[in-house]
Amino acid sequence: MTTQEQKAIPIPQVEARASIPTQNLRVPGPTVVPPKVQAAQAAPMINHRGPEFAAIMKRVTLRLQYFFQTASPVLIYPASGTGGQESAIVNLFSPGDHIISITIGNFGDRFAKIASAFGLEVTRIDFPWGQAADPAVVEARLKEVAPYRGVLLTHNETSTGVTNDLQTLATLLRRLNPDALIVVDAVSSLGCVQLEMDKWDIDVVLTGSQKGWMIPPGMMMIAASQRAWEAHKSAKLPRFYFDWTLARKSLDSWQNPYTPALSLFYALDVALEMMLAEGREAIFERHARAGEYVRSRAKAMGLKLLSDHKNASNTVTAILAPEGIDTKTLLKKLREEDSVVFATGQDHMRGKMFRMGHLGFFSEADLAQAMDALEKQLHALGFQG
Amino acid sequence: MTTQEQKAIPIPQVEARASIPTQNLRVPGPTVVPPKVQAAQAAPMINHRGPEFAAIMKRVTLRLQYFFQTASPVLIYPASGTGGQESAIVNLFSPGDHIISITIGNFGDRFAKIASAFGLEVTRIDFPWGQAADPAVVEARLKEVAPYRGVLLTHNETSTGVTNDLQTLATLLRRLNPDALIVVDAVSSLGCVQLEMDKWDIDVVLTGSQKGWMIPPGMMMIAASQRAWEAHKSAKLPRFYFDWTLARKSLDSWQNPYTPALSLFYALDVALEMMLAEGREAIFERHARAGEYVRSRAKAMGLKLLSDHKNASNTVTAILAPEGIDTKTLLKKLREEDSVVFATGQDHMRGKMFRMGHLGFFSEADLAQAMDALEKQLHALGFQG
């Protein structure tokens, strides 16, 4: 097309901006953000190379280390959790490396997909949706595979509402292969349920801002063990934006290699203060009570869960659609009539289930209102229970 | 290290959180954010797969197309501008591709570095800091190089305060090689100075949220021409997070492939409304007046600029440190005594100059206060002018 043929782009005719509704947002991320954290984002911009930001960066990084339970530096990027998965892969491995992917749902699948996209040789150990990774099955499979450089696994699978027994799996993986890197997607678990990165000898842990951290999406946090930093030195996959070496070097002066997401840093600074005030173990207990409450209410209504009780997640519950109930209609009525927002099922489970988030910032009353509304709407749609 | 040797991570002792100061932030990004845009970030979270977000995503995307002056979709990522540079490279090229990098400063250098990191064959055409790319030199060099797939260039070089004559360069590049991809880093120019993506037949334009868009950092926006989308189909560099195909597919339902930075979308939605109210050409004129004012004030004080007048940027001015003036002391006094924040020189120009941003949200009074304070502090430090 020549220059002459190009038309000027007109100002688009669009729907006017509406105010953002306040809802009982019960999706498994983004979570509800506490008012104090919401307000923190409205602070003025500052120079990200100046002393004011360095103080924030230092405080946030050190407090994240406490929640990651690691002595390793925590690196922070403007990115989603998927960016965290990619960051782990490009910083640890070289083209053709053989790795294992233990997959129990959609986000485990994505982790494996990224590894394949970057030219790794991926052996998958898949478990059906709703089940956790069975250590005995993992052990049997790993004894018959070719040598491998690392294992990717999910702590809490957001798509199925299942939490892997990470401590048991990490212990097993370390025993079977002392040198293989254990790489954990903890996007929807860290800060909500117990994960002791150093004690459990995990090599990489990554998470996303819009989950247990109670701030809006847009930031990804990742930490690597000494073993992982060693592997990083010889890892040959191409990288730049997510290159850990650059981030770690900048951390020496409490900076980022590129412009950080300042308003999300402001939010995280306040959120971490709130989390410390509540107490790490108290937060874990609150999430455990939430998971227990949601599961027992769902069962009392006559609903079936995707996950078995033993491995049910304390941050997200996947509820199977009862026979004859259209989940699209159900979720629409809940949103429009009760301001309660659940998430749909993903992938092959779309329309067959829905998911309820109970992580980050919530009260017991929020969960009760959501379950009451669900019960009411199910009955309105003819569900007998 | 065995499990037993790992010590529990204690709660870190850190400096208490201080309130964020309101300053006359005159760095070339992040820019000052208008109060209405600051406040917009504090709105509640919503489901990024729901209808409320789809309306925002649609409005923001279409309005960005107007400011990019392109009929192509604008893709939006949680990332910095550097992520945008990486996104362009991994989506357009294959390992070993020969490309040209026209570099006039630090951010042009970074673009070339990313290309090399991803295994491209890079021929650099460098110009000294403070100068724009000379079309005659570019033409002479391009006539002697091996065939090339694309050309990377910077519209406005934030490190030197120089704006390339992009229209002339793009016309030249297209004439010399009708098939080569013209890839433009417009991080600190788009939305501030004229850039007609489609009319100038540019293949990729990328920008960052914390510049002309008047919102905090953390989002990157990028658009590709039909020629670029064609090239993308056969581009073999590994990618996932920044894969345009995934983003474009999600755009069909006004969604993102991964969780978007919601509060920054809220901010951008309001900022674009303000930009349309002001008018695109009026914004360009305001930036032209700002550049002219800052340069004339600096010269009247007896200061020298890094750039020659002809190619001086209307979004950032690089001022050379006068003989005997320590820029570190000068910038510290300005920050602490006058709440005026300038940026340091980068790379080999650290300590030899400082930079003043005049882009995004500012008033003439902001610029006057900054220049007045600069004049006062220079005199206090013994500068005679």
Largest sheet of chain A: 7 strands, mixed
The topology string of helices and strands of chain A comes to EHHEHEHEHEEEHEEEHHHHEHEEEH
Distance between the termini of chain A: 62 Å
Q: Into how many domains do the coordinates of chain A divide?
A: 2
Strand content of chain A: 15-25%
> What's the CATH architecture of the largest domain in chain A?
3-Layer(aba) Sandwich
> What assembly state would you assign to the polypeptide chains in this entry?
homodimer
Major β-sheet strand ordering of chain A:
2-10-9-8-5-3-4
Query: How large is the count of helical segments of chain A?
Result: 12
Largest interface: A-B, 97 and 97 residues
Overview of the structural elements:
The structure is a homodimer of 385-residue chains. By secondary structure, chain A is α/β, with parallel strands linked by helices. The first copy, chain A, folds into 2 domains: 24-31 and 280-380, Aspartate Aminotransferase, domain 1 (Alpha-Beta Complex); 40-275, 3-Layer(aba) Sandwich (Aspartate Aminotransferase, domain 2), CATH 3.40.640.10. The first copy, chain A, contains 12 helices and 14 strands. Chain A has helices at 35-40, 51-68, 81-92, 106-117, 135-142, 166-176, 226-234, 244-251, 262-278, 280-300, 327-338, 364-380, and strands at 24-25, 74-78, 98-103, 121-126, 150-154, 156-157, 162-163, 181-185, 204-208, 219-224, 316-320, 340-341, 343-344, 353-357. In chain A, the strands form 4 sheets. Chain A has a 7-stranded mixed sheet, with helices on both faces. A 3-stranded antiparallel sheet of chain A has the order 11-14-13, covered by helices on one side. The first copy, chain A, has a two-stranded parallel ribbon with strand order 1-12. In chain A, helix 3 crosses helix 4.
